[in-house]
Design a protein that fits this description.
This protein is of the alpha/beta class and 75 residues long. The protein has helices at 7-15, 57-62, and strands at 5-6, 24-25, 27-29, 41-44, 67-69.
């Protein structure tokens, strides 16, 4: 499924904050094992009972993801 959203628009929808980033988001991911190319992917770091998506942010970044939705601030 192709998405027709920019990162800036998604950020505004989720947080109410304006963002001028016009990078097109064509896919979303929450499992780094399914990311082949991270270009134009938005990664959701979801906290679960057994795993925390925040632990996989570095791996997603290594696969080319540059846009993330997180609930924890990085240290």
């Amino acid at each position: 499924m192709k998405l027709d959203y920019t990162y800036g628009l998604i950020k505004e929808i989720l947080t109410g904050e304006k963002d001028e980033c016009q990078d097109e988001i064509i896919a979303i991911a929450y499992d780094t094992r399914r990311i082949i190319s991270g270009k134009n992917v938005l990664f959701f770091a979801i906290e679960g009972t057994f795993r925390d998506g925040h632990d996989y942010i570095d791996e997603a970044y290594q696969k080319g993801v540059r846009h993330f939705v997180v609930t924890k601030k990085s240290v």
